[in-house]
Design brief:
With 456 residues, the chain is α/β, with parallel strands linked by helices. The protein is built from 15 helices and 19 strands. The structure holds iron/sulfur cluster.
């Protein structure tokens, strides 16, 4: 590029990012927006106003990839009308599909894999004006955790990545292939990031990793998730600390004790069971039994009596019989989860489970899926009803999506609460003055998904 030629950042080019998939992807998008804004780009929320459209993608199911291909197909027209428009595919699907994306969608300019996010500004700069295609899916790159703390969707809450990748190789899962081997981020970097977030008004952090329970593996010294929680608990300004996702195989008493003893660590666990049948757990290569899982839940509930637990389940895994499924139903009944994500199994190319015959008929998968959804909804409705008459602490996040005169937030146990002022109370400063504050709410009504209350 000549010395006086203008770069994208000089022009403040507008970038739009659409995110598919999990929290990890949302955080990657947030970090990418931060790094691009730092370089002078402007982030826009309207795709039509953008000079650069980036799709941050998910590969967990074939369906997720089809969705991205269909989005790319529908962007073809926009690219034809505006040949300067830059189209990029980022993340898991970029890593997994690689060059195939260029073959199917020749109007795409950039394929940027999971370990190349930190090079995004440089890669876009390289495409600048040339309309060339760049494939960046180097598996040896180290992932950068750098962030611009002021660039995040909610001022009071933030995700903080503490590790990347996964070493577990569950038989149905593509994540270890697209995200790479597990590695933990140094404690000092995490502490510095959390301190910067609190300086910027953040009250709640959620530590993110595919398997946060094994945090510290490969780092020098006695570094564990429990130790990290202790260090973060002493940072002034932070009110709440959460962490996801907890693999049952690596759940140990120390972590549950940290939840019990550290005042800022919230009483909520996301610990996916996936199935209640030992036979299926073994085929899934989950490395625990249903008995062990139940013992962990028991230990969690005895150390932290008000803990809530969330889970993921897969129904219709190859070879799942009615008896196997009944084991899952009984696990769900006994644990009484706060909420569950339930998926119908579909083979994922590249994973070990594709060698197993996908022999559960679609109709059976649908039926089992519905049974679990209904059961979870009944449990949540019953447990939420029990909350009526109680007072809960809520971190206020903003106005309710369905009624702007009301506010919404979450309890420490991750329940969603929508609340209003008592009748006759002055409206002055309401609701904006409460955003980001911890308030006590009296619960007066509930559904399976939401608690409704009045501020104390
Ligand atoms: S723990 Fe299993 S399901 Fe979770 S990301 Fe790793 S391989 Fe996938």
């Amino acid at each position: 590029m000549s010395k006086d030629s203008k770069t994208y950042k000089d022009f403040g080019k507008k970038v739009y990012i659409r995110t598919f998939g999990c929290q990890m992807n949302k955080l990657d998008s947030e970090l990418s927006i931060g790094s691009l804004v730092r370089e002078g780009y402007t982030f826009v929320e309207d795709e039509k106003a953008a000079d650069i459209i980036l799709l941050n993608t998910c590969s967990v199911r074939n369906k997720a990839e089809h969705k991205v291909y269909s989005q790319l197909g529908s962007l073809r027209n926009q690219k034809e009308k505006n040949p300067d428009l830059i189209l990029g595919v980022l993340g898991c699907m970029a890593q997994n599909e690689g060059e195939k994306i260029f073959r199917r969608m020749p109007h795409v300019n950039l394929i940027c894999g999971t370990r190349e996010f930190s090079r995004l500004p440089t890669l876009l700069e390289e495409i600048n004006g040339s309309n060339k295609q760049i494939l960046a899916i180097n598996e040896d790159e180290m992932v950068s955790f750098d962030r611009l703390v002021t660039q995040r969707p909610n001022r009071f809450k933030a995700f903080v990545s503490i590790m990347r990748g996964c070493d577990n190789y569950c038989s149905y899962c593509i994540v270890p292939y697209v995200r790479g081997r597990e590695f933990s981020r140094p404690v000092g970097d995490i502490i510095n990031e959390v301190k910067s977030l609190t300086d910027d008004g953040c009250k709640e952090i959620t530590l993110l990793g595919q398997n946060v329970n094994s945090y510290g593996k490969g780092l020098n010294g006695n570094i564990t998730l429990a130790n990290l929680l202790k260090k973060l608990n002493s940072i002034e300004g932070i009110e709440r600390i959460r962490f996801v996702t907890s693999h049952p195989r690596d759940m140990i008493k120390d972590i549950l004790e940290a939840i019990s003893e550290l005042p800022k660590v919230c009483e909520n666990l996301h610990m996916p069971a996936q199935s209640g049948s030992d036979r299926i757990l073994e085929k899934m290569r989950r490395q625990y039994t249903s008995t062990h899982y139940r013992e962990l839940v028991e230990m969690a509930k005895s150390l932290v009596p008000d803990i809530t637990i969330a889970s993921d389940f897969i129904v219709g895994f190859p070879g799942e019989t009615e008896d196997d499924f009944e084991d899952t139903v009984s696990l769900m009944r006994d644990v009484r989860y706060q909420n569950c994500f339930i998926f119908k199994y579909s083979p994922r190319t590249g994973t070990a489970a594709t060698e197993l015959k996908d022999d559960v008929p679609e109709e059976t998968k649908r039926r089992r899926n519905q049974i679990l959804l209904d059961l979870q909804s009944d449990i949540s409705a019953e447990d939420n009803k029990e909350m009526i008459g109680k007072s809960v602490e809520v971190l206020v996040e903003g106005t309710s999506k369905t009624d702007e005169s009301k506010l919404t937030g979450r309890t420490r146990q991750n329940q969603i609460v929508v609340f209003s002022l008592p009748e006759g109370r002055s409206q002055e400063g309401w609701p904006s003055s409460l955003q980001g504050k911890l308030v006590n709410i009296n619960i007066v009504d509930s559904t399976d998904l939401t608690l409704f209350g009045i501020i104390n």
